[in-house]
Design goal:
This protein is an alpha/beta fold. The chain has ten helices and nine strands. The strands form two sheets. Strands 5-4-3-2-1-9 form a six-stranded parallel beta sheet, sandwiched between helices. Strand 4 (about 90), helix 5 (about 100-105) and strand 5 form a beta-alpha-beta unit. Helix 2 (about 30-35) crosses helix 3 and helix 2 crosses helix 10 (about 195-210). The model has no long low-confidence stretch (mean pLDDT about 95).
Length: about 220
């Protein structure tokens, strides 16, 4: 099975990408470990977090194979190549860049390009996105997902930004495939204070909120 299809399968089951982002040095490895302990199987470490690439190497070495680790905030093919060489299993971008998508595909890895408008979303999907990261989703809302998917039902969307425990179900009801969640899953005060038990507890709430209804699990 191709790597991108395997990870997509995990996303379809868990429907949640935990985003680890910090502008200041923190224990990124322990942050990933705390998310995994709470049931979050897919974690994105943003490239603008100090020590991001080294953290990917450590997480891949220390955590079970069921923990899927990607690098986000990638904006060009050279950076994507470096991230994959460091062990990243998927790539997330804030933009649509054809060369980056092509490079990641050449490495048989999944990519979630960031897009905002229907044209950008369709362009990213046709270029080979595993999913399209709807970003920033803060000002769009679930109704935007529903309206885009009405004429383009084949596209897999992952809203990122503005996703909360209170509206997570609304995004899925509108047709989202997965959700990307950063500060609402890993608040800065918990991360900088090293309250990893608190992060694990919050992760458990998110896993419950994003789980498929029992009747639909296959």
């Amino acid at each position: 099975m191709r790597l991108d299809l395997d990870i997509a399968s995990i996303l379809f089951r868990t429907r949640l990408i935990g985003i680890v982002r910090s502008a200041t040095p923190v224990d990124l490895v322990e942050a990933c470990r705390s998310l995994y302990a709470g049931g979050v199987k897919c974690v994105e470490i943003t490239l603008n977090s100090p020590g991001a690439l080294h953290a990917v190497e450590r997480v891949r070495a220390d955590l079970p194979a069921g923990c899927i680790i990607g690098i986000g905030t990638v904006v060009d093919a050279d950076t994507a190549r470096q991230a994959l060489s460091s062990g990243a299993q998927f790539i997330v971008t804030p933009i649509v860049d054809a060369k980056t998508i092509e490079l990641v595909h050449s490495r048989s890895a999944p990519i979630l390009p960031g897009a905002y408008t229907p044209t950008e979303i369709y362009t990213a999907w046709k270029a080979g996105a595993t999913m399209v990261k709807l970003f920033p989703a803060t000002n769009l809302g679930p109704s935007f997902v529903r309206e885009v998917l009405a004429p383009l039902p084949e596209i897999k969307l992952c809203p990122t930004g503005g996703v909360t425990l209170q509206n997570a179900r609304d995004w899925f009801d509108a047709g989202a495939t997965a959700l990307g969640v950063g500060s609402a899953l890993m608040p800065r005060d918990l991360l900088t204070s090293g309250n990893f038990a608190g992060i694990t507890s919050l992760a458990q709430q998110w896993v419950e909120a994003t789980a498929l209804p029992t009747a639909t699990v296959v």
